[in-house]
């Protein structure tokens, strides 16, 4: 057992941050114990196939549908928003509409794979726009690690297409694989709107539909080979279920990185739930991580153990890291642990194109509109970005199933008339997802309450969450741009506030917004230049515990508009280098 073995580092969490740090440390001859709360049923072909079958059989195809939780490692599910009776204890005033996966591989099992860099301006929100706060590092500091993370993940994109709003690349650099080909829908929309101008706060922007960097295997550049072993890492075949599961594993998941760690120096314990951090109160150093090991994923019984090492890394998730710290009585400087929880509240807009655009084919999204991620308007309202959907109205209205049902039950159509109507309409469905920036708000956070525990006796996360006027104003601006784009492209706007009304609701200046979360948790153990308002330093080391590191998107001081996975991966690689520099000499 781990109690009887000697380790240099204990890492809690086998998601992307934990996997990248484990791989890099073992390659530097450090002995690592990796504790994962969930089962390891993603490591073999047969087990992965069982998850795929679970997805096929599920009535609801939500993010967690292929990944049922173990009793000892419960997880949030977006389906719980309808009942507000899930793993999260939601205290509002708005519902937090996101989920994550507690299995080996973490949420990279169900993510879409969007791998955007943060903008240079995102690191200086307070200095530039007078809102939010600044990071203790800048874009130039993290840029080399972005390149490393893009090669570790295997990102498909063309650098020339990603040079916008201040994004730069080192001389001669390009992504390891060529961009995923734009869909027919992307091409039709781009032909209609590329170059169109929109105004935000007296500032003019030209829009362009561009492929986004994707963690899906395409055509490798030069000598690069997609990571993976054996069955892992097939080339993207255009399947339509990137979220929540790629049938051929063309999409990156953290298990691919773990497969490349040095097996002689890495010990992985799955079904091992970290429950308490032991700290020497005199020195402030961590002395061990207590964990509960269960053998049956369907039962709460477990045995308790303590893992010991020289250094400890919490890489469990922005929520789980905070929950573990709080359960251990570690609140951080100024009780900042768990504070400033963020996400990207996201709107849907959908319409009917003037001609077929090939809806319901290929990856769920292959391109976006990124030009409104930055600008002087951010001093007054949130920035936002558009995902252009290839999956029609599935996410917004439940089509094509609901479209068939409505045509039959309401329209009384059948036979050849029904087929003609469906052929004429389904292929013209267009959908945007518009992710809106959120600032760090001390009113938003994760806490624990002894009244709420999971079946194994561990705290359930208590979520306080509100969407403030800065973000709500950004939602209003985003909805206006979506309508403008639809008009420019000749798309009939079918966005209906009464459809998708089970989504959480927010109100602003007489308007009703139905939103969902993007799964982009951030901010619960934010980094800073000193102890004021932060939990960790720029290396993600806890201010109060010199041998404890908290890694992941929980370290983000602000979130910007990019999906957080690439940035948290770059930060993890940077932290791994600091660990090697500090603890191997």
From TrEMBL:
Species per Swiss-Prot/TrEMBL record: Rhizobium tibeticum
PANTHER family to which the protein is assigned, alphabetical: PYRANOSE 2-OXIDASE
Needed cofactors: FAD
Boundaries of every Glucose-methanol-choline oxidoreductase C-terminal domain copy: 440-572
Domain Glucose-methanol-choline oxidoreductase N-terminal: start-end pairs: 237-345
Keyword Flavoprotein included in the entry's annotation: yes
A Pfam family hit: Lycopene_cycl
InterPro entries cross-referenced by the UniProt entry: FAD/NAD-bd_sf, GMC_OxRdtase_N, GMC_OxRtase_C, P2Ox-like
Record family assignment: Belongs to the GMC oxidoreductase family.
Keywords: FAD, Flavoprotein, Oxidoreductase
Protein name: Choline dehydrogenase
């Amino acid at each position: 057992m781990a109690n009887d073995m000697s380790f240099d580092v204990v890492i809690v969490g086998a998601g992307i941050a934990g996997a990248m740090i484990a791989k890099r440390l073992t390659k530097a001859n450090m002995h690592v114990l990796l504790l994962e709360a969930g089962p390891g049923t993603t490591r073999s072909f047969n087990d992965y196939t069982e998850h795929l079958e679970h997805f096929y059989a599920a009535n609801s195809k939500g993010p967690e549908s292929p990944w049922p939780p173990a009793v000892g490692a419960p997880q949030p599910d977006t389906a719980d928003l309808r009942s507000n009776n899930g793993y999260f204890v939601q205290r509002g005033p708005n519902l937090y509409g996101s989920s994550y996966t507690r299995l080996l591989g973490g949420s990279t099992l169900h993510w879409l794979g969007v791998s955007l860099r943060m903008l240079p301006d995102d690191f200086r929100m307070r200095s530039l726009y007078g809102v939010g706060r600044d990071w203790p590092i800048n874009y130039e500091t993290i840029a080399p690690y972005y390149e490393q993370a893009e090669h570790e993940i295997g990102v498909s994109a063309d650098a020339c297409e990603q040079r916008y709003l201040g994004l730069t690349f080192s001389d001669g650099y390009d992504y390891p694989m060529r961009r995923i080909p734009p869909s027919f829908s992307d091409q039709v929309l781009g032909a209609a709107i590329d170059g169109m101008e929109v105004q935000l706060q007296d500032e003019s922007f030209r829009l362009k539909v561009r492929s986004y960097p994707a963690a899906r295997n395409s055509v490798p550049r030069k000598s690069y080979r997609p990571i993976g072993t054996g069955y892992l890492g097939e080339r993207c075949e255009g399947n339509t279920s990137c979220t929540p599961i790629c049938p051929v594993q063309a999409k990156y998941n953290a298990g691919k990185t773990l497969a490349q760690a040095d097996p002689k120096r890495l010990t992985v314990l799955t079904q091992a739930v970290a429950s308490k951090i032991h700290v020497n109160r005199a020195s402030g150093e961590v002395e061990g991580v207590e964990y509960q090991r269960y053998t049956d994923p369907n039962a709460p019984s477990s045995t308790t153990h303590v893992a010991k090492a020289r250094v400890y890394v919490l890489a469990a998730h922005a929520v789980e890291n905070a929950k573990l710290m709080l359960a251990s009585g570690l609140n951080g400087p100024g009780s900042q642990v768990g504070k400033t929880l963020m996400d990207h509240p996201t709107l849907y807009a959908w319409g009917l194109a003037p001609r077929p655009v090939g809806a319901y084919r290929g990856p769920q999204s292959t391109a976006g509109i990124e030009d409104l991620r930055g600008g002087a308007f951010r001093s007054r309202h949130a920035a936002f970005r558009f995902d252009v959907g290839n999956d029609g109205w599935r996410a917004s209205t439940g089509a094509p199933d609901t479209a068939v049902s409505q045509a039959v039950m309401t329209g009384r159509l059948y036979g050849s008339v029904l087929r003609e109507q469906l052929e004429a309409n389904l292929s013209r469905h267009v959908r945007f997802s518009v992710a809106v920036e959120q600032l760090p708000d001390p009113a938003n956070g994760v806490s624990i309450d002894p009244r709420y525990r999971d079946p194994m006796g561990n705290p359930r996360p208590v979520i306080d969450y509100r969407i403030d006027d800065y973000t709500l104003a950004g939602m209003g601006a985003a909805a206006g741009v979506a309508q403008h784009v639809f008009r420019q492209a000749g798309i009939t706007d079918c966005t209906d506030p009464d459809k998708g009304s089970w989504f959480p609701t927010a109100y602003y200046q007489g308007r009703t917004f139905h939103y969902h979360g993007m799964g982009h948790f951030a901010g619960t153990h934010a980094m800073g230049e000193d102890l004021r308002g932060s939990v960790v330093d720029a290396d993600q080391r806890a201010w109060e515990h010199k041998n404890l590191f908290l890694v992941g998107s929980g370290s983000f001081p602000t979130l910007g508009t990019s999906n957080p996975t690439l940035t948290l991966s770059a930060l993890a690689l940077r932290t791994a280098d600091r660990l090697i520099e500090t603890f191997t000499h």
